[in-house]
Design a protein that fits this description.
Layout: E1 13-18, H1 25-38, E2 42-45, H2 50-53, H3 63-74, E3 78-82, H4 90-95, H5 122-139, E4 145-149, H6 164-178, H7 181-188, H8 215-241, E5 248-249, E6 251-252, H9 262-265, E7 273-275, H10 285-299, E8 305-309, H11 328-338, E9 341-346, H12 372-386, E10 399-402, H13 405-411, H14 423-436, E11 442-444, E12 455-458, H15 466-477, E13 481-485, H16 507-510, E14 512-517, E15 525-530, E16 533-538, E17 542-546, E18 550-556, E19 564-571, E20 574-579, E21 582-583, H17 588-599, E22 610-616, E23 620-627, E24 633-641, E25 646-654, E26 659-665
Parallel strand pairs: 1-2, 1-9, 2-3, 3-4, 4-5, 6-7, 7-8, 8-9, 10-11, 10-12, 12-13, 13-20
Antiparallel strand pairs: 14-17, 15-16, 15-18, 16-21, 18-19, 19-20, 22-23, 23-26, 24-25, 24-26
Helix pairs in contact: 5-8, 10-14
């Protein structure tokens, strides 16, 4: 990540995707006037406009975009200028049919949707970098342009590509990674099932096979896909940088996208940005929103970040697209701000009348300016104006949750001991327990320096390398508290079980190894007795071999009846905790309470359903309180409530469904 300045200093950026090519010219003037009414100061332009900008190969039409950027600039609205490469035009696929993506079943993906062409196609990369370079050459000095937006949501909907060119690139990637076929065969364990490769041209991609594919191959395939997508991004970014000085980004989808390792991607962008959409079946989707926001801030390493897309109300692509209730949009937007966002953007400004997303909500909905949604959009713009001083302040935490996309890729492959034990489910359960306890967290990679944290939680660390295990062991020895969930440290970077058995890299820090996994049948349950409480558990149990760890919780019923379930181990100056079964959010509460004691942490005393977040500036602290309840909440705080300008002398009432932001002055530096 470069040292480019935040693209919109002195204010929280507010706006959304603007697609004026869908509308007659006279609508543009109306749009700009309404944007000013709503407090919009930044729009994303051109993300899907390749066919308009380059109607024939090598023939460019920038007249409409010239006029649009001049109009926006004249009205004080800045532009995040997109490269339109997520949707190549019809002429491209007609000229280069081999650039189409082929899926794992051998089906060729046709034109007419959105998504990337083959990431390995030289014609695609050439065309993509050409349009990016032409845009940067023309608009790199335009006063409206403050940011560049490459592509759109890499890996969504198309990540994997099994075309001949992708397979050729795959072989080259493997040769660079392993150097020799002997090394490749060793890493993939090809002695199993007689899969050994004797020639590079025999190496295939993990497409459809009669049985399960070699898991080490599939794990490398995920890495390869991620690297290929990132190479496409870098090609466009570098074409822009050759002509334009503004920072460059692309929109992530933290915890909602499978194909991209955002720890690596964040190092390639100048400013991290994220798209987040509520998942309608989740009644507590605001918890998943908080998780996504914390994860985005964490991959940005605490720097300012952009909420590039979210929705004013319902989306259009889920089975049941639930509209947001009054006030919910404000709660969603300001939760992102509370967790470090310095920009709040939507898809999109004006609702489309045609196309696949015509039922997707927008800042200006089909119902027009008299609608509740538009009134809330205007009110949110005013509120963000009142919060301008938060821009540049930071979130500081004492707890880290380990998150590794490579472990996600590996754990969710086929033929694991139980398909009911999933990375995302465990991540959400542990995060939600911390959220409900009012504990603000960072996410961290297991190879990071963790010394600044009192507590490190590992909800889903199935893949943990020997080096990462040593890092966590040093953390505990130096005085840290480590909490590890089940099915952890099982395999190395090649999805091979560690020498020394399950959990070997954490043997010292946890004081145990795992002798056997004991998954349960569907519907089967057991319990854990811990400190006088009986905690329900399901799906999973383990047979532990203790090597110094103390038993804190014991199985009652199930395949491990009477055996250790939860352990605590003193290692050096710190402690390592292990939970060998699946506990739900409620059952995790007494476990975390004991862990907090070890770590010297005190959970929040805020009322149930009130989400508290803190940001810290140079001379002031900011408390953001989001009331998810249906009745008022009462807090004890002193300072100034920024949304009303009123002083707060100890008693603050946050109305049902509302948000409050309190500034507390303090002297000296941060």
């Amino acid at each position: 990540m470069s040292n480019h300045l935040w693209p919109y200093p002195g204010a929280i950026a507010y706006g959304g995707d603007y697609n004026p090519e869908q509308w007659p010219r006279e609508v543009w003037d109306e749009d700009v006037a309404l944007m000013r009414e709503a407090g919009v100061n930044l729009v994303n332009v051109g993300v899907f406009s390749w066919a308009m900008l380059e109607p024939e190969e090598g023939v460019f039409d920038f007249g409409w975009l010239d006029e649009l950027l001049d109009l926006l600039h004249a009205n004080g609205i800045a532009v995040d200028l997109g490269t339109p490469t997520a949707s190549p035009p019809a002429w491209f696929f007609a000229a280069y049919p081999d650039a189409r993506v082929i899926d794992g079943d051998g089906v060729v993906m046709g034109f007419g949707s959105r998504g990337m062409a083959s990431h390995a196609s030289p014609e695609y990369r050439r065309a993509a970098t050409r349009i990016a370079g032409e845009l940067a050459r023309r608009y790199g000095t335009h006063p409206a342009v403050v940011l560049w937006h490459v592509h759109n949501e890499y890996g969504v909907p198309v990540g994997e590509d099994f075309s001949p060119r992708a397979v050729e690139a795959w072989r080259g990637w493997l040769q660079d990674r392993y150097g020799s076929l002997d090394a490749l065969n060793a890493a993939w364990g090809t002695a199993f099932w007689g899969q050994r490769f004797a020639r590079w041209e025999h190496v295939i991609a993990p497409a459809r096979t009669p049985s399960t594919v070699n898991p080490a191959m599939k794990l490398d395939w995920a890495r390869f896909t991620d690297d290929q997508l990132r190479a496409c991004y870098r090609a466009e970014r570098d074409a822009i940088r050759a002509h334009a000085p503004q920072p460059v980004t692309t929109n992530f989808m933290a915890h909602q996208s499978w194909n991209t390792d955002l720890w690596k991607w964040a190092e390639e962008v100048d400013v991290v940005s994220d798209d987040h959409y509520l998942w309608s079946p989740d009644p507590d989707a605001h918890v998943a929103l908080a998780l996504s926001a914390d994860l985005t801030r964490s991959v940005a390493r605490g720097r300012p970040w952009i909420l590039m897309e979210h929705s004013t109300s319902a989306v259009n692509w889920q089975g049941r697209n639930i509209a947001k209730r009054p006030g919910e949009m404000h709660r969603n937007a300001l939760t992102h701000v509370g967790r470090g966002a310095d920009a709040v953007m939507f898809f999109q400004w004006r609702a489309s009348r045609s196309g696949a997303e015509k039922f997707h909500s927008a800042m200006l909905p089909h119902a027009g300016t008299t609608s509740r949604v538009f009134r809330e959009v205007v009110a949110l713009g005013s509120r963000l104006g009142d919060l301008a001083e938060l821009q540049g302040s930071r979130v500081e935490t004492q707890v880290a949750v380990l998150y590794d996309w490579e472990s996600l890729w590996a754990q969710d492959l086929e033929w694991r001991p139980s398909d009911a034990l999933q990375f995302r489910e465990r991540m959400r359960a542990y995060y939600e327990r911390l959220w409900r306890d009012g504990v603000q967290v960072d996410f961290a990679h297991p190879g990071d320096d963790l010394s600044a944290y009192r507590l490190v939680v590992a909800p889903a660390s199935y893949l943990l390398t020997a080096g990462q295990g040593e890092n966590l062991t040093r953390y505990v020895a130096a005085g840290g508290t480590l909490l590890v969930s089940c099915f952890a440290a099982v395999v190395d970077e090649h999805d091979a079980v560690h020498a020394g058995g399950f959990g070997a890299p954490l043997r010292e820090s946890l004081g145990l190894t795992v002798e056997e996994f004991l998954p349960m049948r569907e519907g089967e349950t057991c319990a854990v007795e811990l400190d006088g409480e009986t905690l329900p558990a399901d799906v999973w149990a383990e047979h532990l071999a203790l090597e110094g760890a103390q038993v804190r919780g014991t199985y009652r019923g199930g395949p491990a009846d009477g055996a250790p379930a939860v352990t605590r181990h003193q290692h050096g100056e710190g402690t390592g905790w292990y939970v060998s079964t699946r506990l739900d959010v409620a059952a995790l509460a007494p476990v975390l309470a004991a862990v907090y004691d070890d770590a010297g942490l005190a959970p929040s005393s805020s009322p149930e359903g009130v989400e508290l977040m803190a940001r810290h500036g140079r001379d002031a602290d900011y408390l953001l309180a989001v009331n998810h309840r249906e009745d008022p909440a009462h807090l004890t705080v002193h300072g100034t409530e920024l949304l009303t300008g009123e002083p707060v002398a100890g008693d603050l009432t946050v109305p049902a469904g509302e948000v409050a932001v309190v500034r507390t002055e303090r002297g000296g530096g941060r």
